[in-house]
Every structure is written in structure tokens, then in C-alpha cells.
Amino acid sequence: MFQLNKDRCIQCGQCARVCPFTCITLDSGYPDMAPKKLRACVKCLHCAAICPTEAIAFPGLSCEPMVPWEPGETAFLQTKNMMLTRRSIRNFKKDPVPRQVIEEVLRTSDFAPSARNQQPQSWLVVHKPETVAKVMKLVVEWVENKHISMEILSELERQNNIVTLDAPHLLIGIGPRAGKMNPYTDTVIALRDIDLLFHSRGIGTCWAGYLANLINASLELRAYLGIPADLQVYGAMAFGYPDNETYQRLPYKGNPPVQWK
Ligand SMILES: Cc1cc2nc3c(=O)[nH]c(=O)nc-3n(C[C@H](O)[C@H](O)[C@H](O)COP(=O)(O)O)c2cc1C
Fold this sequence. Notes:
By secondary structure, this protein is an alpha+beta fold.
């Protein structure tokens, strides 16, 4: 519920200007949210976050102090270089990534945009190597039974695990099958933020498309991981510290076609 502290409000109107659904009116000079507009409010907290005098509050939803960020050449280069230097890692050390590091990264990914601010995604962190191994065992059994994605087995024979990459951990992005606007896109955007945040800490990742598809397809895998039928895996990645995998050059990536109109 939108709450205004009139003693603090300087009537600058910024809150109304940034509201995505014109929920805030300024009829009396002061911001107000009409009851019929409450349903349209997506609780993005833009209004409270932009207010220069902390006059707006939503009980139960806090707004933390802003963190430092200076857009400009330095920020651009650091962000750009982070993106250029990320690679899909294929050799991982056994060393675990500490839980608090993963938790901070996941919390930060909450700031990814999502349709109507719905944030439909949830995360399953497979942190124990023995659980990763069991997942891989179930994958192999499924492939052997169904004779689908047989390259998984032929690569395994060559000591190349293209499903869990023999990484110490897996991150699985899950969302509802129905009832939300864009759970697939929302989950993948957040997962990409996680990917880059991991990279910024020296943690390597490899997106795990086989794994995501196989969890959705295999009842045994879903049951083992405790993913109910009304939820779907929208993205997954293997992660851990890279094992002697330091790239020296930027590979050719081509240029995607761009049209200007
Ligand atoms: C959605 C998605 C699914 C992927 N699934 C797998 C996978 O199951 N196994 C794998 O070894 N690599 C997988 N990859 C990694 C790609 O092979 C890799 O991104 C590509 O070869 C380019 O390499 P780079 O990421 O280092 O630029 C996946 C990547 C994406 C984006």
C-alpha cells in the first residue's frame, strides 16, 4: 500500500513521472494513489526509489540507500570487457564456490527486469557434488532408454561431459508454466546477470541447455530434484572455478545482421 509522508514531500512530481502505469496522480499537488489504481501498481517501487526526501513508503517493502555508480568511459569499458572475456568454461576445479558468494549473486539477480515486475523465477542450486553426479546418472539412464540426444553418450565415452561439464555445482532457473506474463524471458535475463556476476568474481559458467531440456522431459529427474509438474526449467548452468582455462584472445563472433529504419 502506497503511503505518503506529507511533511517530507516537496511536491516535485518525480514519483508520478516514473510510474509505469500512471497509478500516481498529483491532483492536489501531492502524490496520491487512487484505490482503483492499486491493482495496476506492480510494486516496482520506482516512486519510492526516486523520491529525494524519502516521503513515499510501501509497508513491508523496503528501499535501501543507493549504491555508487558512475556512468562513463570507465564503467563502459569495465562492463564491455567483462562481457568480452566471458567464455563457456569446460574444465572446472573441484573446489566449492562458497554458499555466501552464490547467495549474494542470486540476491543481486533480483534486480533484473521482469514483465510487470512479476519476478516469476526461483532457483535450485545443486551445491553438493554427489547430487550433481546423481543428476548426471539419471541423465545417462534417460538417454539410454529413450535413444534421444545420443551425442551425450558418445561425448561421455571421450571423457567429455556436455551436460553437467563435471562442474561442482549446477544452477537451475525455474518458473511457473502458466499464470505469469513472461517467465521464460524473465528467468533467462536473471540467469544472464548471474552469469556475468559469477564471471566478475572469477567463477566460470557454462549454460546447460541439455540439462534444462532433460529435466523438463524426465519424470525421474524432476522427482529427484523436487520440481513439481506445474513448474518448468527455463534455464540452467554449470558453474565453479575454471581449471587452467585462461583465454588469451577474443574469438571471431561475426556480426549479427542489423537493420536500421
Ligand atoms: C542456451 C544455451 C544452452 C547451452 N547448452 C550447452 C550444453 O548443454 N552443453 C554445452 O557444453 N554447452 C552449452 N552451451 C554453451 C555453448 O556451446 C557456447 O555458449 C558456445 O559454444 C559459444 O561459446 P562461448 O559461450 O564461450 O562464447 C549453451 C549455451 C547457451 C546459450
